[in-house]
Amino acid sequence: MMRVLGFINNSFNGLQKHKGIAKIKFKANPLGFNQFRSRGLSDSKFFNGNDTVLPVLIVGAGPVGLVLSILLTKLGVKCAVLEKGKSFSKHPQAHFINNRTMEVFRKIDGLAEEIQRSQPPVELWRKFIYCTSLSGSILGSVDHMQPQDFEKIVSPISVAHFSQYKLTASLLKQLEDLSFHIHTSEAFEGLNHRPLKGQEILMGHECVSIDANGQCVDVTVAFLKEGKYMEKNIQCNILVGADGAGSTIRKLVGIDLRGEKDMQKLVSVHFLSRDLGQYLINERPGMLFFIFNTEAIGVLVAHDLKQGEFVLQMPFYPPQQNIEDFSPEICKKLIFKLVGRELSDIDVIDIKPWVMHAEVAEKFVCNDNRIILAGDAAHQFPPAGGFGMNTGIQDAHNLAWKIASVVKGIAPSSILETYETERKPIAIFNTALSVQNFRAAMSVPAALGLDPTIANSVHQVINSGVGSVLPSGLQRAILDGIFTIGRAQLSEHLLNESHPLGSMRLAKLRHIFEEGKSLQLQFPAEDLGFRYRKGALILESDSVLGAPELPSGRRRDYAPSADPGSRLPHMNVKVLSNLSNQEICSTLDLVSGDKVEFLLIIAPVEESYHLAHAAFKLAKEFEVSAKVCVLWSAGTKGIEEGSNAVLTPWENYIDVVEVKRSSTSPSWWDICQMTDKGAILVRPDEHIAWRAKSRVVGDPIMEMKRVFSAILGVDSTKR
Fold first, then answer.
1. 478: pLDDT confidence band, cut at 50, 70 and 90?
2. Average pLDDT of 197-226?
3. What is the pLDDT of residue 9?
4. Interval 362-396: pLDDT, tens
5. pLDDT (tens digit, 9 = 90+) per residue, 537-564?
6. For a designed S-S bond to 32, which of 194, 254, 404, 619 qualifies (C-beta 3.0 to 4.6 A apart)?
7. How do residues 106-141 score in pLDDT, each as one tens digit?
8. Residue 456 and residue 356 in contact, taking contact as beta carbons nearer than 8 Å
9. Among residues 685, 678, 673, which one has the least CA distance to residue 703?
10. pLDDT for 142-167, tens place per residue?
11. Span 254-278, mean pLDDT?
């Protein structure tokens, strides 16, 4: 339910309050986009080989920044991470990990498996429950898991429920295994006197200015050491802003956001209660609890019922209300009202206000492709559907191989422009879907006679209309009075089957649930089926791209597609070798996560073998790795010998055979809606770069030259 809220992380209070830093921020803020006078840089100068210049600097050590640093390091790219917080937040924040993100995590050694082992059992979080209190009447419940979600037909892995701070800890362990070191400004000696070497995370360091005028990006960072304000200059070739919704990087380069601001203000209360967790396990397990009664209204996110870890979300209406109105003691009383009884062991950990936005940055890439935005810095969604963190991690997955291609000289810096070309439309679509899902969530209180739009309109009138001239105490009294009248709609006297109005409202509520019109958790069609329609890919000459389908706001099943720009469909295959233990894996596992490598999938057909030879030859010419997968149907003649005789002298190939679920299951080429004379070229991020549906027309050498040239943005005549 919760999204990444980097802009409300209070862990850097010491630096925030320092007078010097305030001055620096004031000085830095005017450094708008128009003041950047970046020269046009040739690609030969993009990476000048100077050891004092870091190839990639990532600002923000949230999940997006950490995942990007892992992927880049695995691809052999030196990088370092700056984080303004002195420590990592323990607030649960985001918690739903969708299918595609779990597939990305399968590329990070053991991470997906660790999440699956550590998350709560799915039976404890598959439902959303709507009730008058946690111990009162249940108004309805929605089970968001369907049988096919566990059958691994369309994906080798399922969705997960795993709090963000736990994910952060797992990512840090991965980075530790990759020889990363975490440094604080207090403990790290000599930071101000040496360049960053890479494989470092600097805590308590805030970016305060950027200069992209030269042949690299000069970043000034501020930190406190022994109570003294200090600055350091860091030079990098590429700067990635993954620093959350309030992104300093985005503000410094002057990129605006477009969309809907201030959709709703809320207060988030993080608390522990094993008593409540055990009660819900026994009586009504679920992930989200929407609670409506005459005394309080709120949404409870059960992050871990066994550990008794919860976050309560409540509407917040400043300035008539202020955060001091939500002291730990007041929050406890509100929680008791929502639970329906007192709890013996409640422990309020943290209370934070936050604002829901639905906005996308105007640009994701700027300053000669040297400064890039990712995650919440580039897009902010309502938490409905959990698209925030997931979209950000998928940004990182799209971006990592492109940065590595530039660093290693495989592609010019212009390939980084395709990151924006591909990811911005996805961000815009996910924004619309999240807003639509949020509106669906609001349909439930509206059916009960609590239309949130009325409350927001009243609040707006008090703030900016005639109510604004009234004394603040009277404004608050009016607001509280209106809310009390509204909550009276939820009284047991009114909200029951015997009362005509109550019966009508309950019937309307049942209809919303039965029709799938309430808040949804899973969107398989959008989760796995999103497609890049332009970028580092080649569309088929006969393809006609209509307008992308608008989000429906309801769950739709994913339909596998091998169209260019789509994620490679999943199918289990068996690796053929001389070993008696024949490995079974997913087609997605055939794509390397450790190098920039393209995968060509073909059938054991003569003309496709000619194409494979051409792909190897041209990949060598373009100085990029290529791997060929020969995909056999079960029982095909010659399967025992494999492809050695026809692919020699090339060695980077693999023979695999389909593993069908049943004799009636479609073949690989049927799933892809292609013939076995076709071919598919897959990018390092598992998206399809090019395909020939039935056969390659013309000279395979010329076709592969055209393909690699277009995807990498390289002029083949200058190779």
1. confident
2. 92
3. 37
4. 999 999 999 999 999 999 999 988 899 999 999 99
5. 999 876 666 667 777 778 889 999 999 9
6. 254
7. 999 999 999 999 999 999 999 999 999 999 999 999
8. no
9. 678
10. 999 988 888 899 999 999 999 999 99
11. 95
Q: In terms of C-beta distances under 8 Å and separation of at least 24 residues, what long-range contacts does 456-462 make, across chains too?
A: 456/264, 458/482, 459/317, 459/320, 462/320
Helix, strand, coil shares of the chain, percent, nearest 5, are: 35, 20, 40
pLDDT at 189 over 60: no
Alpha-carbon separation of residue 510 from 148, 283, 292, 505, 506 (angstroms): 25, 21, 16, 9, 6
Please state, in angstroms and rounded to a whole number, the distance separating the CA atoms of residues 94 and 160. Answer: 11
Q: What is the DSSP letter of 202?
A: E
Closest CA to 441 of 299, 586, 635: 299
Give the Cβ contact number of residue 298 at 10 Å: 20
**Relative orientation angle of helices 417-447 and 500-514, to the nearest 10 degrees:** 150
- Give the type of residue at 20: G
| DSSP secondary structure letters along 260-288 | EEEEEEEEEEEEE-HHHHHHHHHH---SE
Tally Cβ neighbours within 10 Å of residue 38.
Answer: 16
pTM: 0.91
Residue 513: which residues within 8 A CB-CB, separation 6 or more?
130, 140, 141, 142
> The tokens 């009248």 sit on which residue?
485
pLDDT band at 468 (very low <50, low <70, confident <90, very high): confident
Amino acid at 645: A
* Six-digit token string for 189: 């000696």
Strands 228-241 and 371-373 turn out to be parallel
User: CA-based diameter of the chain, in Å?
Assistant: 88
Q: What are phi and psi of 416, to 5 degrees?
A: -70, -25
For 130, 499, 570, 599, 661, the CA distances from 564, given in Å and listed in that order, are 42, 57, 15, 14, 26
CA distances from 190 to 184, 194, 195, 196, 447 (A): 12, 7, 10, 11, 62
Please tell me whether residue 130 adopts helix, strand or coil conformation: strand
CB count within 10 Å of CB 488 equals 12
Q: Are 456 and 260 in contact (CB under 8 A)?
A: no
Q: Which of 90-104, 114-128, 459-473 has the lowest mean pLDDT?
A: 459-473
pLDDT computed for residue 578 by the predictor: 54
Total Cβ atoms within 10 A of residue 506: 18
Q: Structure tokens of 637?
A: 């003649």
Name the strand (E) or helix (H) holding 63.
helix 63-74
What does the chain come to in residues? 719
Residue environment code for 110-131, b if the CB has 16+ CB neighbours within 10 A, otherwise e:
ebbebbeeebbebebbbbbbbb
Angle formed at CA 653 by CA 650 and CA 656, multiple of 5 degrees: 150
How many helices and strands, by DSSP H and E, does the chain display?
20, 26
Q: What angle do CA 84, 87, 92 make, to 5 degrees?
A: 105
Contacts 24+ apart (CB under 8 A), 545-548: 548/425, 548/429
pLDDT score for 33: 28
CA distances (Å), origin 348, targets 330, 334, 417, 513, 690? 10, 12, 46, 32, 53
